[in-house]
Amino acid sequence: MEESLIEDAEIQNKLEVAPALISVHPSQKSVVVAVGSDLRVFDLLENCPVTLVDESDGPSRKDSIRAIRYGASGKLFVSAGDDKLVKIWSAESWHCLNTICSEKRVSAVAISRDDSYVCYADKFGVVWVVELDGIMEGKVLPSKKGAQLLSHYCSIITSLEFSPNGQYILSADRDFKIRVTVFPKKPLEGAHEIQSFCLGHTEFITCTAFVSSPELSQGYLMSGSGDSTVRLWDIKSGSLLDTCEVSILAGHGESNESESLAQVTVTDICTIPNYAFAAVAIQSFQGIFLLSCDLAAHTLSITKVIKIPGESFIPTSISVSASTRLLWMVSGASNLPGSNHPGFSRVRVISCIESSSILEDEHIPGGTKLLEQLQGKVPIEESVMSAAAEAVRAAMSSLLMKKQYSEEKREFRKRTRNDKKATQ
Amino acid sequence: MDSETKQTTFSKSTGLPRKRFYRARAHSNPLSDSHFPIPTSPAHVDFSLHFPKFVEAENKISKKVEFADIGCGFGGLLISLATLFPDTLMIGMELRDKVTEYVKERILALRRTSSDGQYENISVVRTNSMKYIPNYFEKGQLSKMFFLFPDPHFKEKNHRRRVISTHLLDEYAYVLRAGGIIYTITDVEELGEWMKACLEKHPMFESLTQEELDSDPVVELLCSATEEGQKVARNGGQTFRAVFRRIAYVS
After folding, report:
1. Number of structural domains chain A divides into
2. B226 among the known binding-site residues?
3. What residues contact A276, with CB distance under 8 A and at least 6 apart?
4. pLDDT digits (tens, 9 = 90+) for B42-80
5. Interchain proximity A126–B139, CB inside 8 Å
């Protein structure tokens, strides 16, 4: 009994660890890092840090931010997380335009292609929608409540995505499935028409992204999962086009370690519109996989594995700018057990298309000024970085993986049940 | 189960399994993580094991399942439907493992004792249909779905455990073809109103007319065929029915 108490306490502790997140503006006007409740923004056009202005009538942040992203047009930015607040920012003035109060913790967000709706998913599997009527005028809107759009039955939604033409909304969950729903003309009345389910993953799904080409603007969906695969889908039919194993290669990357058989989790995928390419971050791997996608032959293949030498840099989140094709990566976490820091982050940049070289700190756009803003001024110790990577891994698996109990343990848990008592 | 205990759990006169060896709790938590195997996708479900008499060359099954009884309980409805629609494959879905085991044995026993190859078209799976319906059926595969005497979940905080809700109807509408019919019945007035309201509100369902209800031979089975329905009738209780059609829909 005592043992299980300790276990529970451990789980409680781990749950609070949140990975650092990064998002770069589609045309690289600015870049944002979220660590814990801290949202750090750097303006790359003016080459200066940005101070956020939040005058919307809502409480301010306390708990970890779990999801950040720019709208496709680059005009809006949205952040959300464990404090049950969804904040919509102008990506130009960095004023908070609207604060939405969620009933539950928020796990994923998306902005519709035309910037008219924001959707967010809570930890109970419900996706909510809010109309952004008049938000483009840049004035602060009164706090709103979302309307229910759709629901995954009590399953944590890990990723929300609009299809490139805005016709569908995709929601991926920890029960191995991706639901493709027609985004209706009147979303506030709910999205009832399911186009397909993409079924094939054998573990929780962590991330999704669309690949498209000029010939195929509708695009195909890529998804990453805890089953160490990246999969390619046709969302119209829900059919699985190809599966790319990343576990074996991650093992090779670790050189002398014999971990090649262990399952690894794909933590993040990012793609560039009209470019059949994806960058993939993998848990406990110090670097990035580059995948190419043959949209005609429906195949995925690994074209390059970029290792990051030196410090133990394991990306917790990645983002790519469509205009410069620079891949921005962050490694970090908040609320680390046994650490006094509220959280830390380390930012690296790879020029991944032409030369695939890792940029030195001074060659990053924005240079050391940017790093000071996004990383904070605390020096980052090597040991903290590797501890953070492990803490993030543990937090993610305890959040998303199904708990496996032995037969004896299950029987033990049933011991107080009336029917069990009677048989004894 | 070894052969000795197996013999005693079956009735000597009818050859059917005896219910008292399959006692189970009345309720099961649909929200908890499932620890039974779940097919990755409909293509991964091996229905040839469920319907061996319908297997053709290369272990392929000649038909697809068309009826699903969600929360089939002890399987009374399936057994009545089996002879009414002998050429239609149907499956019961039940979350409680002992109850599923009972239905499985009951169907196998009926197949054994039936003289003219009846009951080959029904089977049962243990699953949580609130979570895994899309793992079993393709889009538009089903023509009938049954929700008979579901758990009422009176408390408001437990309403999300109800098997009929606006969000779950989206999934049922996905597996039902246009024209397919959803049958619901309960002896709890509050739940009956809830289910009716959910279906009326949903843009992909429309109510059947009285004439349509009268001409549908399945409707009267909702009460008479199931163990729960018989119990309600014995006690002279009221039932509340909602039968709706899945309609073609463009959002």
Report:
1. 2
2. yes
3. A211, A213, A292, A293, A294, A295
4. 999 989 899 999 988 777 888 999 999 999 999 999 999
5. no
